[in-house]
Amino acid sequence: MKKNLSLITALLLTAPLFADNLSDAFSNGKIKGEIKSVYSNSNFLGKSTSDDIATIGGSLGYKTADFYGFSAGATFQASHVISDDNNNNVFISDLDASGAVLSEAYLEYKLSNTSIKAGRQYIYTPLVSTAIDGKSSESLLKDSFEAYLLTNNDIPNTTIVAGYVDKYQAKTSNDSDTADFEEFEDGAYTLYIKNNSIENLELQAQYLNIDAINSNQDISNLYFQADYKIGLHTISAQYLSSKDESKGSDFEDGELYGLKASGALGIGKLGYIVAFNSSTKDGDVNLGAGAGTSDTAFTAMPVNGGGVPTRANTDTLIGGIIVPILDVTTVGYAGYSWSDGGLGDVSAVGAMAIYPFYKNFLLKVNYEHVEIENTIVPAGIEDGNTDVTRVYLSYNF
Q: What H or E segment, with its residue span, contains residue 13?
C-alpha cells in the first residue's frame, strides 16, 4: 500500500487538469514568494578555524482558488552558495546547498468543517514541524513532508489534526545539494488537538508514532502544552515524553517538563521572557520529526536550538528582555543549563535585532556566545566557546 502512496498523490495532483472548466480557479489563484539571503559564521566548540557561509535563494509558491471544494498548491525552493569556508562542516545540514527542489505539491479538499490535504507540504505542529521563521530552525531552505492530513473543526473552539507522514525532505542533502524526498522510516502517524474553549486558556496535545524500518527501534512521543493569559502576561506549561527504542532499554525513555512566563514589563514597551525546562529521565528527549521541533522546548536558544535542554537529567533556565527602539526590536538574553554528565554545564548569552526597514523587506541579525564547562563525555568534545553570527535579509511578495 505504501509503495502506491506517491502514485496516488501524483494522480490526485493532476486530476483537476482533466476537469471541464478550471479557468476561474487558476486565474483567481494566489502567488507568493520570498527572495532571501543568509550569512552565518561559527567557530563551533572553540575550533581554531571558523566556518562561514553566504547563500542566496528563496521560494515561489502558487495556490489555486477553490473549485467545488478542491484546491491545489505547489512551492519551489532554490538556494545558491555564494561563498563557503566550511572547515568543520557546521553548516552541512543547514545552509550548504545549491540547487532547486519542489517542496510543496498538494491537493486539498474542504467540505464544511473538514479538510483533507495530500502530498508534499509544510507542517507546523509541536511534534511534526517544518523549520520556523524567526526561530533557531530557520534557514534559507525549509524542510518538508509528504503527508496525508485530515483537519476537523466540528467541535467548537477545537482543531483536530490526524495525519500520516510517508516521506521527508531535509534542508540539505549533507553533500552541498538540495535534498530529495526520502522514505520517512516505515511511516509515522500523528494526532494533534488544540482547544480554546476556556477563556484566555489554550490547550494543545499531540501524539506521534514513528515506525522504524528496523524492528524494535520505533519512536513514540506525547506532548501537552497549556497557555493562560493574565492581562498582558502569558503563563505556559509543557510536558513531553518520548521512547526511542534504538537507544536501548537504559536510555530509551526521555521526559521534559517546562514553565514559561512572557509579557510586558510595564515600563514603556519593554517586554520579558523567563523559561525553565527539566528533563528527568536517563535518556535524551526525542522531539519528534522535522527541523522545527528543535524549537519546541521553552528554553531552546534562538540560534543553537533545543539540543542542550533536552539532554538526559538536565535543568535549563533562560531569561530575556525585549527592547523596541523606533522600528527595531532588540532582544537580549542569557541562559544556563546544568547536567551531571555528558556535555556538562552550558551557559549562553546572545542578542538579536529585527528591523523591517522597508515595505516587505526584513533584516534580522543574531549573535550567540556559548561556553561549555565540566565536560565528561563524549570523546572529542572539550571545554570551549562557540560564537555564532547569523544575518538574514528577505523580501516577501
A: helix 5-14
Phi then psi dihedrals of residue 291, to 5 deg: -65, -30
Alpha helices in 275-392 (DSSP H): none
Q: How far apart are CA 374 and CA 371, in angstroms?
A: 10
pLDDT, one tens digit per residue, over 115-129 is 999 999 999 999 999
Using alpha carbons, list the distances in angstroms from residue 262 to 1, 205, 243, 257.
47, 21, 31, 17
Contact partners, residue 52, CB within 8 Å, separation at least 6: 39, 40, 41, 42, 83, 84, 85
Q: What is the DSSP letter of 129?
A: B
Cβ neighbour number for residue 289 with a 10 Å cutoff = 26
Q: What is the pTM of this model?
A: 0.91
Q: Is 112 left (phi over 0), alpha (psi -120 to 50) or beta?
A: left
174: CB partners within 8 A, 6+ apart: 92, 93
Mean pLDDT within 260-284: 94
Calpha distance 132→306 (Å, rounded): 13
- Placement of cell 512521543 in the chain: 221
